């Protein structure tokens, strides 16, 4: 009997190359609006977007407000006079077309699916972005359960988000469930709070600040954990 039967994956920057997707979508949207896209605009957007998503994760704003709010703040910061709602709609459309995967993601998911694991995709994101991106990707048919935060009205790390996921999964044993993701604040904190094992995908070898169960630097290191060599991957905290 496998120690884990359900594997719960984050999407962006765990399986999908969101940094590339975001950069391409931002550039395209700035071009559509005939605005200059430079390093200052990019850095300003990254800072604002990060804070707005943290506000959503912590319940301070709703999924309906989030998409436009970040561009309202961006336009204010850059001194741009424009329709933030229309710009947001263009950005969402451009982003929804980006479906590139991280190196090793397709091989990982294909192999795990072939081994009989139950796979779920749990993502903090907008349905207008995440659903089309998944449908366009090579992973389109790989997951039994897909939960998108904006669809359910709550985001990781909230326990309500995981309640929705576990109901969709048929309420499996938490002891046989492993969550894999790149975010300490949403993925790892959420898994720890919910009482499920966590595996932090940490390709940059950043310092760990939470008692996660495992840390991997490459996606294929997950096989070592699942094959029973767990003692080699336990995080030192």
Please specify the SSE layout and strand pairing.
Layout: E1 6-9, H1 18-32, H2 39-57, H3 66-78, H4 84-95, H5 105-114, E2 118-123, H6 127-136, E3 145-148, H7 149-152, H8 159-168, E4 177-181, H9 184-194, E5 197-201, E6 214-216, H10 222-226
Parallel strand pairs: 1-2, 1-4, 2-3, 4-5, 5-6
Helix pairs in contact: 1-4, 2-3, 3-4
Q: Which whole number gives the mean pLDDT?
A: 93
Instruction: Please describe the biggest sheet, giving its number of strands, its sense, and whether it closes into a barrel.
Output: 6 strands, parallel
Into which percentage range does the β-strand content fall? 5-15%
Helix/sheet category: alpha/beta
Order of helices and strands: EHHHHHEHEHHEHEEH
Distance between the termini: 29 Å
Number of discrete helical segments: 10
Radius of gyration: 18 Å
Q: Helical proportion?
A: 40-55%
The strands making up the biggest β-sheet line up spatially as 3-2-1-4-5-6
- Compute the number of strand runs: 6
Shape: globular
Unreliable parts: 229-234
């Amino acid at each position: 009997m496998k120690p884990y039967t359900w594997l719960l994956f984050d999407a962006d920057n765990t399986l999908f190359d969101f940094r590339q997707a975001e950069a391409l979508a931002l550039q395209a949207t700035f071009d559509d609006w005939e605005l200059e896209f430079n390093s200052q605009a990019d850095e300003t957007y990254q800072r604002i977007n990060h804070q707005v998503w943290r506000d959503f994760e912590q319940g301070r704003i709703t999924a309906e407000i989030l998409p436009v709010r970040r561009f309202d703040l961006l336009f204010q910061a850059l001194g741009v006079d424009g329709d933030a709602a229309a710009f947001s709609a263009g950005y969402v459309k451009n982003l929804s077309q980006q479906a590139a995967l991280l190196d090793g993601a397709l091989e990982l998911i294909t192999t795990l699916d072939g081994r009989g694991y139950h796979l779920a995709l749990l993502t903090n994101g907008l349905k207008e972005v995440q659903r089309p991106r998944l449908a366009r990707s090579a992973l389109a048919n790989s997951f039994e359960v897909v939960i998108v935060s904006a669809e359910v009205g709550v985001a990781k790390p909230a326990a309500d988000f995981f309640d929705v996921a576990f109901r969709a999964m048929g309420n499996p044993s938490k002891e046989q469930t492993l969550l894999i993701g790149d975010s300490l604040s949403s993925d790892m904190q959420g898994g720890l709070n919910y009482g499920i094992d966590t595996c932090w995908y940490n390709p940059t070898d950043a310092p760990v600040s939470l008692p996660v169960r495992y840390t991997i630097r490459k996606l294929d290191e997950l096989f070592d954990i699942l094959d029973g060599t767990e003692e080699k991957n336990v995080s030192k905290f």
